[in-house]
Amino acid sequence: MEPLNVTRQMLAYQKQAVNHFQSMWDFVQTQTSATADRLMEQAVWMPQESRQTVENWQTVMQQERERFGAYVDQCFVIYEKMLGVPQVATPAKTKPTKDIK
Hints:
Number of helices: 2
Mean pLDDT: 85
Strand content: under 5%
Largest sheet: none
Radius of gyration: 26 Å
Distance between the termini: 49 Å
Low-confidence stretches: none
Protein backbone atom coordinates (compact mmCIF):
# COMPACT_ATOMS: atom_id res chain seq x y z
CA MET A 1 0.00 0.00 0.00
CA GLU A 2 1.16 3.45 -0.81
CA PRO A 3 2.38 5.58 2.14
CA LEU A 4 0.20 8.52 1.08
CA ASN A 5 -2.92 6.34 1.13
CA VAL A 6 -2.02 5.00 4.58
CA THR A 7 -1.58 8.57 5.81
CA ARG A 8 -4.94 9.58 4.35
CA GLN A 9 -6.62 6.63 6.04
CA MET A 10 -4.98 7.49 9.36
CA LEU A 11 -6.16 11.09 9.02
CA ALA A 12 -9.72 9.93 8.24
CA TYR A 13 -9.64 7.66 11.30
CA GLN A 14 -8.39 10.47 13.54
CA LYS A 15 -11.02 12.85 12.18
CA GLN A 16 -13.75 10.31 12.89
CA ALA A 17 -12.38 9.73 16.40
CA VAL A 18 -12.35 13.46 17.12
CA ASN A 19 -15.91 13.81 15.79
CA HIS A 20 -17.07 11.00 18.07
CA PHE A 21 -15.28 12.60 21.02
CA GLN A 22 -16.95 15.93 20.29
CA SER A 23 -20.35 14.22 20.09
CA MET A 24 -19.73 12.56 23.43
CA TRP A 25 -18.53 15.85 24.91
CA ASP A 26 -21.68 17.57 23.63
CA PHE A 27 -23.89 14.85 25.13
CA VAL A 28 -22.18 15.01 28.53
CA GLN A 29 -22.30 18.80 28.62
CA THR A 30 -25.99 18.81 27.65
CA GLN A 31 -26.81 16.31 30.37
CA THR A 32 -24.75 18.21 32.95
CA SER A 33 -26.43 21.50 32.05
CA ALA A 34 -29.87 19.91 32.27
CA THR A 35 -29.04 18.46 35.68
CA ALA A 36 -27.71 21.79 36.92
CA ASP A 37 -30.88 23.52 35.68
CA ARG A 38 -33.07 21.02 37.53
CA LEU A 39 -31.03 21.46 40.71
CA MET A 40 -31.30 25.24 40.50
CA GLU A 41 -35.07 24.99 40.01
CA GLN A 42 -35.33 23.01 43.24
CA ALA A 43 -32.82 25.10 45.19
CA VAL A 44 -34.95 28.03 46.28
CA TRP A 45 -32.23 29.06 48.74
CA MET A 46 -29.74 29.78 45.93
CA PRO A 47 -29.23 33.54 45.37
CA GLN A 48 -29.87 35.03 41.93
CA GLU A 49 -26.20 36.01 41.53
CA SER A 50 -25.16 32.39 41.94
CA ARG A 51 -27.77 31.25 39.45
CA GLN A 52 -26.51 33.83 36.96
CA THR A 53 -22.93 32.64 37.49
CA VAL A 54 -23.89 29.03 36.76
CA GLU A 55 -25.82 30.07 33.64
CA ASN A 56 -22.85 32.15 32.44
CA TRP A 57 -20.56 29.21 33.06
CA GLN A 58 -22.82 26.94 30.99
CA THR A 59 -22.86 29.46 28.15
CA VAL A 60 -19.09 29.92 28.17
CA MET A 61 -18.50 26.15 28.19
CA GLN A 62 -20.80 25.69 25.20
CA GLN A 63 -19.16 28.54 23.27
CA GLU A 64 -15.67 27.24 23.96
CA ARG A 65 -16.65 23.70 22.96
CA GLU A 66 -17.99 25.04 19.66
CA ARG A 67 -14.88 27.18 19.16
CA PHE A 68 -12.64 24.19 19.82
CA GLY A 69 -14.65 22.08 17.36
CA ALA A 70 -14.34 24.75 14.67
CA TYR A 71 -10.59 25.02 15.30
CA VAL A 72 -10.10 21.25 15.00
CA ASP A 73 -12.21 21.10 11.84
CA GLN A 74 -10.12 23.89 10.35
CA CYS A 75 -6.93 21.95 11.15
CA PHE A 76 -8.29 18.83 9.47
CA VAL A 77 -9.13 20.89 6.36
CA ILE A 78 -5.51 22.07 6.24
CA TYR A 79 -4.21 18.50 6.61
CA GLU A 80 -6.59 17.25 3.93
CA LYS A 81 -5.34 19.96 1.55
CA MET A 82 -1.77 18.93 2.29
CA LEU A 83 -2.60 15.30 1.49
CA GLY A 84 -4.66 16.14 -1.58
CA VAL A 85 -3.80 15.08 -5.10
CA PRO A 86 -0.12 15.79 -5.57
CA GLN A 87 0.72 18.44 -8.10
CA VAL A 88 2.81 17.37 -11.06
CA ALA A 89 6.22 18.89 -10.59
CA THR A 90 7.51 20.92 -13.49
CA PRO A 91 11.11 20.26 -14.41
CA ALA A 92 13.51 22.93 -13.34
CA LYS A 93 14.69 25.20 -16.12
CA THR A 94 18.43 25.20 -16.36
CA LYS A 95 20.76 26.91 -18.74
CA PRO A 96 22.47 24.63 -21.18
CA THR A 97 26.08 24.02 -20.25
CA LYS A 98 28.87 24.49 -22.73
CA ASP A 99 31.04 21.54 -23.44
CA ILE A 100 34.44 22.09 -21.89
CA LYS A 101 37.25 20.66 -23.95
